Write a sequence for this structure.
């Protein structure tokens, strides 16, 4: 359960830091250290961890999170209500697990909004800990962005407003209360936030029942099916959940599907393949559609990243079972091709026009690193301080940021996510970005010793925002900084 003790664990000891650094690189990429115990092995924390199969694989259907309905719509505004509360849900078959939820759902309900249409969401907090809701990838006023210390206290309610004046994209929302965000997200406070653009209908991409959001994450369970949370606990989080279920199946027709993936893990990276290295079309990344489809046979997602693909299950005979495999965890989802279906959808050669890059007026450099002597995760040598403005930026100016992962000694991976804006990737290690990173993004992997160059225009809103590593256990421990957008 969330506790003050866990909140304060962000200040790790140097001894614990040494353990983190020895295996962090492999674990955060999704690999399992050789010391991982077998199912039921005692972990030294009073409970035992489920790290092998938790039930017969592919015995439960993958659910699709329900779409939240507005309670009212007026002119160009839709009004919603949602509550944050504990719930008992079935994750491992035949058991109940206490989780933290939005409206009692694990994952939370999907908000499906339209570009340019205001969404006003009244959140109420029925937990015993503060929360802060952040729409990841949203261009949002600072008062509604979920600044880590701008929290919603227990028993209180507040309004969050989302103008949605941005490209159609697969976004997601999650808790961001500082020092508590890692545990809150681990225990369930996350859901999809999808922005649709009616103008894209002419593309004739798969829609409706053939447009499927898929949230991937890992978890650690005790023998009583309760969740076990510890900061930087990568080696025992070995149960992979797909839309909240371990190794589910999903029936599909022999036709094209649009699959929207988000990695909602705290630390794990997924590297995914479909079937026997089947070729699929990547059509979008974090910030929406690419300029054109990119044929791929595998795709990687660090925490917070999104990828959209189109799969033609018509390439498989009816009766086929097609597995989604992770490079480390193995099969995580099975698609059952169980029927024929008419299909008028397509994947056009041209998907979108990527916004032009304005001239940059300033360049900045940021280094992400872990200090093993203090157990601190740092940006430019400093831990997060809500009272300190690290970067002041004039509204509507364009900057180039060079982000470097300085953790070469222990090989700790990081990634990077600025709030308010999405960016273009100019280069990775001096080379042009790969096609899948050539669109609009808001989260970028930065492996040990790697450097990425990013360009963004900061606006249109004023106020304070954060940028941080989205390996969220790292940001909860201080790998975060504050920027202020000024007139």
């Amino acid at each position: 359960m969330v506790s003050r003790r866990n909140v304060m664990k962000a200040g790790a000891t140097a001894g614990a830091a040494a353990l983190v650094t020895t295996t962090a690189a492999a674990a955060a990429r999704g690999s399992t250290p050789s010391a991982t115990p077998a199912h039921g092995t005692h972990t030294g924390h009073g409970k035992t961890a489920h790290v092998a199969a938790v039930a017969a694989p592919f015995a439960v259907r993958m659910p699709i999170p329900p779409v939240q309905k507005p309670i009212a719509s007026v002119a160009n505004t839709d009004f919603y209500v949602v509550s944050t509360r504990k719930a008992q849900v079935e994750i491992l078959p035949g058991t109940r697990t206490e989780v933290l939820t939005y409206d009692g759902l694990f994952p939370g309900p999907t908000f499906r909004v339209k570009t340019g249409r205001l969404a006003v969401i009244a959140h109420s907090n029925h937990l015993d800990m503060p929360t802060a809701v952040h729409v990841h990838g949203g261009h949002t006023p600072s008062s509604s962005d979920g600044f880590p210390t701008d929290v919603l206290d227990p028993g209180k309610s507040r309004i969050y407003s989302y103008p949605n004046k941005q490209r159609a994209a697969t976004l997601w929302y999650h808790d961001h209360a500082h020092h508590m965000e890692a545990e809150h997200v681990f225990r369930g406070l996350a859901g999809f936030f999808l922005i649709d653009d009616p103008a894209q209908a002419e593309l004739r991409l798969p829609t409706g029942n053939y447009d499927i959001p898929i949230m991937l994450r890992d978890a650690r369970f005790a023998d009583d099916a309760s969740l076990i949370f510890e900061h930087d606990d990568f080696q025992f989080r070995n149960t992979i959940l797909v839309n909240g279920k371990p190794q589910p199946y999903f029936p599909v027709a022999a036709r094209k599907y649009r699959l929207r993936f988000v990695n909602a893990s705290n630390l794990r990276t997924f590297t995914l393949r479909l079937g026997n290295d089947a070729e699929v079309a990547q059509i979008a990344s974090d910030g929406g559609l690419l300029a054109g489809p990119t044929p791929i046979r595998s795709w990687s997602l660090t925490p917070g990243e999104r990828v959209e693909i189109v799969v033609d299950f018509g390439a498989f005979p009816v009766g086929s079972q097609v597995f989604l495999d992770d490079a480390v965890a193995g099969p995580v989802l099975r698609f059952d091709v169980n029927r024929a279906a008419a299909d008028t959808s397509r994947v056009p050669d041209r998907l979108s026009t990527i916004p032009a890059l304005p001239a940059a007026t300033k360049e900045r450099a940021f280094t992400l690193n872990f200090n093993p002597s203090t157990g601190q995760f740092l940006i430019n040598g400093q831990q997060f301080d809500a009272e300190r403005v690290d970067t002041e930026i004039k509204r509507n100016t364009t900057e180039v940021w060079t982000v470097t992962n300085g953790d070469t000694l222990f090989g700790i991976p990081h990634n990077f996510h600025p709030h308010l804006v999405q960016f273009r990737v100019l280069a990775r290690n001096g080379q042009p970005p790969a096609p899948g990173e050539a669109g609009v993004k808001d989260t970028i992997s930065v492996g040990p010793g790697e450097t990425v160059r990013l360009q963004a225009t900061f606006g249109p809103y004023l106020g304070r925002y954060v940028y941080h590593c989205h390996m969220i256990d790292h940001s909860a421990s201080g790998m975060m900084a504050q920027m202020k957008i000024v007139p």
Q: What stands out?
A: The chain has a mean pLDDT of 90. DSSP finds four helices and 31 strands in the chain. The first helix runs from residue 4 to 8. Residues 208-340 form a domain with the Immunoglobulin-like fold (CATH 2.60.40.420).
